[in-house]
What does this fold into?
Amino acid sequence: MKIIMLGAPGAGKGTQAKMIADKYALPHISTGDIFRANIKNGTQLGMEAKKYMDQGQLVPDELTVKILLDRVAQEDCKNGYVLDGFPRTIPQAEVLDEALTKLGESIDYAIDVDVPDENIVKRMGGRRACVMCGATYHIEHVPPKAEGICDRCCEKLILRDDDKPETVKNRLKVYHDQTQPLIDFYTAKGVLRTVDGTVDMNDVFAAIVSILGE
Ligand code: ADP
Ligand code: AMP
It folds into this structure.
């Protein structure tokens, strides 16, 4: 099963993608996580990507598409995957579509996690991420057991630079301009499903399971 998670930054794509990946035994592929790992390791790609990410802009398609196509060509993706944060532009979606068509494959579901902008700004300010393993928390909705410390690896939790309010506003604008058109793109392909992302994360997941099947 090949699944794409759509939705504004902070809508809960990563949260749901991890739950889907666990339940259906699929790899969870987040281009944001790939860029952050590259930044942490000081690679050329990481240094280039950081310039855009810090401003809430998208990393250019030339850089993004190649890493994604290389990733989905790996052995663990042969039975499908959950894409989280890709595609984010129509050209990215077209490149993915062409690559899949060549293999006689296609996306099964594009799940839009729908959350209005007002809720997003609040959510992002409360998001905390582990610098080591990438696990995400929320200071109110999903607090760690010990304040500021990751439950999984005991590392420090941080507020991502791009989750600061000024950058979040930019990211929302970029989302509406460049990513939201994908809703029409996947509607036209007959694979778009929308879930209400404002409810409790377990209820969001239940709605997704009712779409994907048990
Ligand atoms: P995205 O991957 O779309 O950017 P995340 O999954 O990281 O979003 O979620 C953004 C923040 O909102 C995180 O702090 C997360 O813990 C929290 N969150 C996710 N889903 C919900 C929900 N249904 N209700 C409240 N908070 C949520
Ligand atoms: P995310 O972790 O998905 O919120 O992504 C964090 C940041 O990484 C985004 O704001 C972009 O700067 C960059 N990014 C992640 N995925 C993509 C993509 N598919 N295209 C362009 N930029 C991306």
Summary: The chain has a mean pLDDT of 95. The domain at 2-116+175-212 is CATH 3.40.50.300 (Rossmann fold).
